[in-house]
């Protein structure tokens, strides 16, 4: 038999901390910043760092997928739940839950999060004021890079 | 050492075709019926049969996750794409895509679908008229069972 | 601001039933045939049709991920469990389970399956005799196409 | 209509850093320790901290699913690849890849990892010397708790 099979080999991707830029989580908050590592728009999955200033709040949001959150520094909670997450803690969030992020006033917070599915941000009457997806996370960051003269990063993890 | 480990054994779950009831896909269409096998509300994943009458349409919807669709009978297409799916075909849908289901007028259609993430149904001006999740699929079917005196099915797959 | 964002638009992929070829599930059985729609080697996920002759068995296998199985025709069971799956039934299999497929002697079976993670095939003493992954499913089918002069199909779903 | 629907409400789970114990990654290494947050044995997914002593190596392993790895301190690499991961970096690993973890000799390393699918540890001739799954991660930690008189933790995330 002649001919060869296509090579299907894959390998891990490394994203250095300084290969991404912090950018504001517009239009939701000036006090919350993001650093997007990867955004898989076909699966709706995003690997992203989140930083919020001490005391910042991020409006009520409604999850339609899981969020895996590992806290690096500071303490934060959800107004709707009675636990507080600090450095080294892990929070496993599920679809079908709704809450309001509150950063403790004592210190800025930073966490690594893996977001699956969209997040709806809600207004005072429960109306949808914004829908975040891997696509919007990617577009916001790509726009930021374009506006600042940075080269467009490769965000699709594979 | 005394004491025993918790038993973590798992096993497959079997859902017989006649263990589920067809019910209308309210409020979207009287011509489209569903049969829900499983609904994982924490992950937002639903295994469901979909039947539509010949010629039926299901309004524009916006995907926020993947849909795996295997066609059993009839032919259907998306108004926005140029292929037609018939019996034995597989359609792999991704997040971040938007389309209108059209059943061929010659024959009723039936398919097995695995839905990940929510689906937004859109109105004439692109406004959201409904959001479907594993939770809404489950609630609709559980309500149907309750209204018809059927016992509540176990929908969580594990 | 000048410049444009990369276009991140995605769309569904359609795989016609006759765009794929049945091929034997070597080396496990001459009586079991596959038709691979998609194989995502980075995620280890495969969408595949499986046909087995009436009375065929597929040796003990050990699951390391989920399998979603929708039966089209014939009846089959796992020697280790007490249910029988027939046309229209759905089976939700989980990681961490081990079993032997047995096709009912009355009729050939056919099912659509979505396989996540690897499957280990085991010998008489529980030893591993084969490991199936999206990569091996892809390689087997690509080899079959090469050997028969068919063009190499695109198997990566996105 | 009388009767009520089952309540399908879900909510996030918080796992405090000090609610889990470090334990050795037996039998692979005395220099590598784990702290398991969650283990979903049906999906084969594990959220776990990994610590390795400066200069430690973890034998060749073969991935059958993705691993999401966020580095907290120290520097590490894979002998087979040419990048080095340091604090704040993210590594996205895919199925179908094989490599050897090497901790930089200057400093202990620590990372948060989310492991999907099994990992095979390989011997000098490529033979399988161990298979790690959510089940083995759970069993190892539950055994450690039992042996040390700690109560058995709840590891299933939902």
Automatic annotation (TrEMBL), chains A, B, C, D:
UniProt entry tagged with the keyword Oxidoreductase: yes
GO molecular function: dioxygenase activity
Pfam families: Cupin_7 (PF12973)
SUPFAM superfamilies in the record: RmlC-like cupins (SSF51182)
Keyword line: Dioxygenase, Oxidoreductase
ChrR-like cupin domain segment(s): 17-113
Domain of life: Bacteria
Gene3D superfamilies: Jelly Rolls
Cited InterPro entries: ChrR-like_cupin_dom (IPR025979), RmlC-like_jellyroll (IPR014710), RmlC_Cupin_sf (IPR011051)
The protein, known as: 2,4'-dihydroxyacetophenone dioxygenase family protein
